[in-house]
Amino acid sequence: MPDLTRLERRLGQALERFERVEARLGVTSDSAEITKLSQEHAELKPLAEAIAALNAARAEIESLEAMSKDGDAEMAALAKDELQAARENMPALEQAAMLLLAPKDKDENASAILEIRAGTGGEEAALFAGDLLRMYQRYAGARRWKFELESLSDTGIGGVKEAVASVSGAGVFGRLRFESGVHRVQRVPETEAGGRIHTSAATVAVLPQPEGEIDVVIDEKDIRIDTMRASGAGGQHVNKTDSAVRITHLPTGIIVVSTLKSQHQNRIQAMNVLKAKLYDLEREKRDSARAAERKGQIGSGDRSERIRTYNFPQGRVTDHRINLTVYNLPEVIDGALDPILDALAAEDQALKLAALEDEA
Q: I need a surface site. Which of 14, 29, 238, 333 has the fewest CB within 10 A?
């Protein structure tokens, strides 16, 4: 059982810290300190409000308990009804405060780099990778996020060998991080005369892109930059100049390619993606111990694990991490990801709450 007294003490300490930060903000004139305190104030404010709501509910319960014992029978009966409702609401208020007390991923509100690669399955895998790319484009559009395609290697007939996109907006990484992993598709290819179901796969990686400059130092001697001619399916818009840029990070072997029309822009974009990849490597090192302790967590971002199956004949999508199956595959492929992502976020919150209670 969790030590509730210890959890209450931690809530009290968090509220005291919020009040000290707020008081200091009212008197300091140092710009650097104001910036730092303002950021901490913004991070602590939701928790402080949740604690205030919890304390107010507790005070109301005490008041209603006293009224329910009052000599006025009518007033006592009314107080008892309100007391029952107030008590029923307490667990939700307590859980909300505890969840806000749990450690936050500092990249929760960051933008993200989205990578999609065709896996096993040949052309069918490439077609599925194209489906996933369009699915995320539509989902980003529905949430009013900015979706920019950084590089694309296609098959010319609707398939995608590899795609890298930048998705910008509030809370992008916190929402899409659950998408990292192997996505599997089961369907009958259009070229399959016998009607046999084929299984193919594509890999999705979601990397955080923190606000401002990513704090990753890259030594010039550790990278090799090559320019090359961008490839395309043909037509008047194909890039005819050697403007595509490939950057190889020699210590890690990471290769990044950007195929926009401007070579200068390609260098900038490729370096940004490389920094995001190196930053993600550091995140994985930092989180490895925690991931080992909590093997059941769903937000680990392990790209080698099969996370979801899209079964077209049965019209179902199954997320294997939480054993969730929905039977609206066409809507999901069209970008209706919220029901699945909501369930994943809820499970992630439950795991965080359980970990917090274990620590108490």
A: 29
215 shares a domain with 301: yes
Rounded to two decimals, the pTM is 0.67
Q: Could you tell me if 326 and 337 are in contact, meaning their C-beta atoms sit under 8 angstroms apart?
A: no
Q: Is 199 exposed, middle or buried (0-12, 13-18, 19+ CB in 10 A)?
A: middle
Q: Domain range spanning residue 215?
A: 111-353
Q: Contact, 184 vs 213, CB < 8 A?
A: no
Residue-wise pLDDT tens digits, 252-296: 888 888 776 677 777 877 887 888 888 777 777 766 644 444 444
**Same domain (yes/no): 126, 92:** no
State what percent of residues in the chain have pLDDT above 70: 83
Three-state secondary structure of the chain: CCCHHHHHHHHHHHHHHHHHHHHHHCCCCCHHHHHHHHHHHHHHHHHHHHHHHHHHHHHHHHHHHHHHCCCCHHHHHHHHHHHHHHHHHHHHHHHHHHHHHCCCCCCCCCEEEEEEEECCCHHHHHHHHHHHHHHHHHHHHHCCCEEEEEEEEECCCCCEEEEEEEEECCCHHHHHHHHCEEEEEEECCCCCCCCCCEEEEEEEEEEEECCCCCCCCCCHHHEEEEEECCCCCCCCCCCCCCCEEEEEECCCCEEEEECCCCHHHHHHHHHHHHHHHHHHHHHHHHHHHHHHHCCCCCCCCCCCCEEEEEECCCCEEEECCCCEEECCHHHHHCCCCHHHHHHHHHHHHHHHHHHHHHHC
Residue 203 shares a structural domain with residue 272: yes
CA 296-292-47 angle, to 5 degrees, is 70
CB atoms closer than 10 angstroms to residue 81: 11
Distance between CA 148 and CA 114 in Å, rounded?
10
pLDDT digits (tens, 9 = 90+) for 322-347: 999 999 999 999 999 999 999 998 88
305 is a domain residue:
yes
